[in-house]
Amino acid sequence: MSGQSQCTFFIAAKKRFCPLKVSKASASPFCPNHLPQLESNRIACSFCKAPILLSLLKKHTTKCNAKPPVSTPKYYCADVNRSIQSDPIPTPPHIRDLPLNELQTLIAKIRRAHEQIPKPHRILSEDAERSGEGKSKTQIQALIGRMADMNLLSSSLTFVEMGCGTAEFSHWVNEEIIKREKLENGVAHFILVDRDASRWKVKMDRGVFEKIRIDIKDLVLRKCASISRFDEKREVTVEGLVCISKHLCGAATDLALSCLKNYINSDPVVPLKSIVVVLPT
Fold this sequence. Notes:
single chain; about 280 residues; alpha/beta; 5-stranded parallel beta sheet; two-stranded antiparallel sheet; globular
C-alpha cells in the first residue's frame, strides 16, 4: 500500500472521495474507474442512478439490484402497516420543565431499569469477535445472549430480521444455533427483510436464508409462505416466529411493530413467539 495513493475523484452523491487506490507510477491522480476520458462516456442507471459506462449499461440494467420486480409479490400491499393518526399527539414536556419531584421519580426509574439490564454475554466464537467492531459487536453479543436466556436459539423457529442490512446478525444467530445443537449446517429458516439491495458481508452458506426486498410499510407478513413451509431438508416443524433486528430507526421500528400487530390479528398458522430488537435512542 506504500506505493499507492487514494483516487482524487469526489463522489458528490456520497460526499466523499473515491476509496480506490492509484499507483504512484500512474501519471493520473484518478483510479481506472474515474479517468476523465471515461467520465464523458457514462450515463446514469435508470434504477440505481449510478453512473455506468455506456458500453456496460445494457448488461448492468439486466442485473441491477435496484431493478423492481417484474410482478408484484403476494406479500406486497401498499402502506398496509402505516397507521392513520386521527388526532394529533400532544408534545410531551421537556425534561428541563419537569417539577423536581417528577424529575426525581424519573431518575429513580432510569436507575432501576439500568440495574436490571443483564451484562453482555460472551458466547460468540473468536471469528465473530473479530468480525464485529465496537457498538455492533456489543449489540450482537447482548442480543444473542438475551435470546439464549429466552430459549429462542432453536432450529424449530423461523426468524424474521427487519431491516437486515448485511444480515450479519442473522448469520451469527444461525451459527450459534448450529453450535448449540451440534449441527453440520443450519436448518432454521431466516427471512431477511430490507428495502435496499445490500451485499452480505459474511458467508451465508450454512443456513436457510431468504432475502425479501421490500419496504416494511408494504409487507404483509402472513402472506410469506416460507414462514410455515416444511421442507424435508429442514426436518423440523416450525413452532413459532421470532422477529429480530438491530438496524431499525424510530420510524421503521414503528412500522415493524405495526406489521407484527397485523400479523397477530390475522390468526396466523405460526404464532409470534418473541420480538428481539435494539430500540433507537
